[in-house]
Amino acid sequence: MEKLDESARRVLAMTSRSDGRPFETGTPQEARIDYDANCPTLQGAREAVTSVDDRRIVGPNGPITLRIYRGIGAPSKDGPGLIYLHGGGWVIGNLESHDEICRWFANTAKCTVICPEYRLAPEHKFPAGLTDCTATLAFVAKSAADLGIDPSRIAVAGDSAGGNLAAVLALMSRAGDAPPLAAQLLIYPNTDAAQTADSYRRYAEGFGLTASTMKWFRDHYVRTIADIADWRVSPLQAETLAGVAPAFVATAGHDILVDEGIAYARRLREERARMVHRHWPGQIHGFVSMGRYVAEARRAVEEAVAAWRSFEGALL
């Protein structure tokens, strides 16, 4: 086992001293309250951006709130656009919990970031949240000129469950079931809901996200056990990844999701997709949301943006 980074060790020590209960011992609503209360203690200061606006659109499931960030230096027209899908096991997380990351992407990439408040489980099980994300991409593509975005420069990004949704959206885009994407930026993505990878054993307890919590998330998200094998829940189970948008994949060494993240990156490489894989061996799940204590958090965003730019450069 790789050595745990001191920053990760410090965060784990802080959280172990807190009075927080494991999410799976309470209700989804209690988990959301606890998560929302703890987020500000780990995130760094929120960077200023040129503008932040909330907007509501209508999707197949009803209204969706979008938060739109315009980064400092972002072009007023024909600029890059990024749809950011927040993590939280499809059960928790919201626009506030990932506000810091969206601001970092907006400024680092000099782009417009659109973050949807997609529907959460168990009130809205699969595929409701995915449908909201697909509707968001459709809106951004259709409204690109009004948003100051070049429709050929739209990327999707997400962390954890958001990384899962981003990977699925990229597969749907390849198939023509969603508008085209220029890149997919996946941060410790969940790619296999079967949860049988060995990292679920190695890091089951003591490294933040536990195996029991991840099972609780998954079981709230799926409708039946049959959904677990559906590639729209488990993109690692897709028949082929060939032809998807170029991908950046970030993995953390001490993470129950690390093996499936590495497996996804390996398949992308083997199936000749353009891909950059960056591995942080000493980090834990969720480290990109721990900017107050983990310097690698901001660097992960910077490397994701650098990969995105390299993909665009190859197409010019």
UniProtKB/TrEMBL annotation:
Protein name: Acetyl esterase
InterPro entries assigned: AB_hydrolase_3, AB_hydrolase_fold, GDXG_lipolytic_enzyme, Lipase_GDXG_HIS_AS, Lipase_GDXG_put_SER_AS
GO molecular function: hydrolase activity
Origin superkingdom: Bacteria
Pfam families: Abhydrolase_3
SUPFAM superfamilies xref list: alpha/beta-Hydrolases
Stated family: Belongs to the 'GDXG' lipolytic enzyme family.
Residues in Alpha/beta hydrolase fold-3 domain copies: 82-288
Stretches of the chain forming a coiled coil according to its record: none
Gene3D superfamilies, alphabetized: alpha/beta hydrolase
UniProt entry keywords in alphabetical sequence: Hydrolase
PANTHER family found in the cross-reference section: AB HYDROLASE SUPERFAMILY PROTEIN C4A8.06C, ALPHA_BETA HYDROLASE FOLD-3 DOMAIN-CONTAINING PROTEIN-RELATED
Active site: S160
